[in-house]
Amino acid sequence: GREQAELTGHRLASLGIKFDQIIHSSMTRATETTEIISKHLPGVKKISTDLLREGAPIEPDPPVSHWKPEAVQYYEDGARIEAAFRNFIHRADAKQEEDSYEIFVCHANVIRYIVCRALQFPPEGWLRMSLNNGSITHLVIRPNGRVALRTLGDTGFMPPDKITRT
Question: According to the UniProt record, what class of enzyme is this (predicted)?
């Protein structure tokens, strides 16, 4: 995982983008990943939030047999993850004059749910996507509100022997 984070940090730095901040899950794995990535992006502010913690966002459709959390977990985690979506995924303030670039370091369930919601796909389909560990998903929100998914789970910058999935 640490090697994957190093590779991800190197890839993000190589893009030549001036990132404004790294918003990360407060879970240990995401915090440690953020520390490794941020070494490649000096000066980028880091913000920890419980909203991006891993969880069960919504009951998947179609259902899966290998993962069945208790119904209460969907209510608790789902409300929190939906709050993360509403808090972080939106158009820029009308007064903003330059593009902004944020990095979110969190977890596959959260990322998949947010991608579905941002693209206005049924969020119950979140488990139909698979993400590799340390991958990069690039979501663009234009000032007019249009959303585009540039990449989903990109790990093309990693050697094949470093690509894993949980």
Answer: hydrolase
User: For the domain with range 1-157, which CATH number is right: 3.40.50.2300, 3.90.190.10, 3.40.50.1240, 3.40.50.300?
Assistant: 3.40.50.1240
Contact in structure between 20 and 50 (CB atoms under 8 Å): no
Q: Which of 158, 149, 157, 141 is nearest to 90 (CA)?
A: 141
pTM of the model: 0.94
| Average model confidence (pLDDT) across the chain | 94
pLDDT at 143 over 90: no
What is the distance between the alpha carbons of residues 38 and 136, in angstroms, rounded to a whole number? 15
pLDDT of residue 138: 97
